[in-house]
Amino acid sequence: MESKFQDLLESNHKVVAKVCRIYTDSPEDFEDYYQECVVQLWRSFESFRGASKISTWVYRVCLNVCLTQLRSKKRIITFPQENLPEIKIEVDHVLEERMEMLYKAIKLIKESDRAIILLYLDDKSYKDMAEILGITVTNVGAKVNRVKNQLKSIINGRKRY
Amino acid sequence: MEEKDIKELWKQGDELNAAYSQEEVEKIIQLKPKDIVSKFIKTLKIEKALNAIVFSLAAIFFIYEQSWVLAIVFTIINTLFFVYYKKIIHQLSNESFDTDVVQYLCNVYKDIRRFVLHYKILLWVITVPAYTLGIYIQSPEKFNSIEKLLTLKVMTILIAGLVVSVVFAHAILYFMYGKKANKIKKMVDALNQEEV
To answer: Which domain holds residue A136?
Structure first.
């Protein structure tokens, strides 16, 4: 069971990280949110019967976790004997800077719309987006148009971009 | 910056999101959940245990004192509380994270309201007897006749105390949970709003 879950997380960790990043402003919050997503994915994993696609399930759990987190500035959970694990990244500074700007622009959009832009940027179909969010395909289409235009205006309104 | 450039950058950024190691994931999955519903369940379980202890001790005390009616009353209250807590904990425990976003947000909104309602009920259940007991301790003779009890002074103290307590408690509940519930409700409304 644990090894199956490890495999699932390995192939979906980018989704988890992206969802957490659009809803957090600090590395500490990011770690808290990421951990909570992993905990809830693990707790739901046993009951996952494959009624929806794995990716749909992962997006749902992570968005549900992040949208309903009670934000606390102080860290609540710590590992008993050691520091929290560091994320190991080989940094491309230019790319990281450009990504930071993109995430900053996304975070200027309201929380429910961030879910829409995330799914759109991840190339999810309108049908998948509707299934993840629980709204109609028509509504998804209209929202995507509005939110992507909003994102473009934010980005193009920035001098440094 | 054009739409395709934004998407291109987004895809390149994927490479920056490295995963936790196997050992780290093993540690994470041992952690207790800290979502809002789990916090409610934890709080309610503690309340349930404390109530069971207090009411059981009270019932035992009244049996020892041979106050049979009070012993029965406390045992009934204890049982009712136990059933009530079991029901509310069961309702909250059924929450599943893998439902669609709108459904989940609606469920959490209802759970927050249910939890707040629980405290409002508890507030009335505790405050009214507490103030009555306070007046009884101060001047037990007032309870000898209904006329003495229903004097303007007594009723003013009772009502003013109740109003202050209720307003204060409601304000605390609003800042602890009400704001969060409103935020969730706004997200649900925004997602459900049909756009053209």
So the answer is: 88-161
